[in-house]
Design a protein that fits this description.
The chain has about 210 residues and is mainly alpha-helical. It has one domain. The protein is built from 6 helices and 4 strands. It has a two-stranded antiparallel ribbon with strand order 1-4. Strand 2 and strand 3 form a beta hairpin. The radius of gyration is 17 Å and the shape is globular. About 35% of the residues are buried. The model has no long low-confidence stretch (mean pLDDT about 90).
Length: about 210
């Protein structure tokens, strides 16, 4: 048990260092292009570190659940880009790496981690499934609110008229709500904080960059 706590602590330090370097790099103009090119790899690496703490304990079951959430969120994004109905009219730039059907593959991965982080703190607050899902949805919306200004400036994606529609935030809530229900009904109860720390660190990262850029 002590070894697991130490490993989680080391992972937290790693995440703090990675995103601190990211803040400095994004804020220092000569390094900005390098930071942008590294963005999908950084998200993949830091996300993998977080997932390790859940997968190595819960193995195949949690892999299947998280893969399901990845597929759902990815194809919701595909539908969103194609129709403009779900989030509003937008398209992805080139910063987030390899795309399939107009959506970067890393997007579903980060969606999954944000939902997982929101969920693991929600299950510490309440045991009611509806409240767990609702809190998870609210956390996801607050996260996206901090993300959007930076994502627009860095061309992660482009909104029509450079305006984020209100339905984008509604969509975030609904997607996170039902994804959290999937986790709840699966019986997943791993309460390790590292996924929530990941959400908080990214939230602070985007909050600082929204001021610095």
């Amino acid at each position: 048990m002590e070894r697991k706590k130490d490993l989680e602590k080391l992972s937290l330090y790693f995440l703090i260092i990675m995103f601190t370097v990211g803040i400095i790099g994004h804020s220092f103009n000569p390094l900005l292009n390098l930071m942008l090119h590294l963005t999908p790899f950084t998200l993949l690496l830091t996300g993998a570190v977080v997932l390790y703490h859940y997968v190595y304990e819960d193995s195949i079951k949690i892999i299947g659940i998280l893969l399901l959430i990845y597929v759902i969120t990815f194809f919701v994004e595909v539908a969103g880009v194609e129709t403009g109905i779900i989030f509003g009219n937008y398209y992805y730039g080139e910063v987030l790496g390899l795309k399939l059907l107009g959506v970067p593959l890393i997007i579903g991965f980060n969606w999954t981690l944000i939902i997982l982080g929101a969920y693991v703190i929600s299950i510490r607050i309440t045991r009611n499934s509806f409240l767990i899902a609702s809190i998870s949805g609210l956390i996801a919306v607050v996260f996206d609110y901090s993300l959007e200004p930076v994502a627009i400036k860095l061309k992660y994606w482009v909104w029509e008229g450079d305006i984020v529609p209100a339905r984008n935030y509604l969509a975030w809530f609904i997607i996170a709500f039902f994804s959290a229900l999937i986790l709840t009904f699966s019986g997943f109860k791993n309460k390790r904080y590292i996924a929530f720390y990941y959400v908080i660190i990214q939230f602070i990262f985007f909050l600082i960059l929204s001021i610095a850029l």
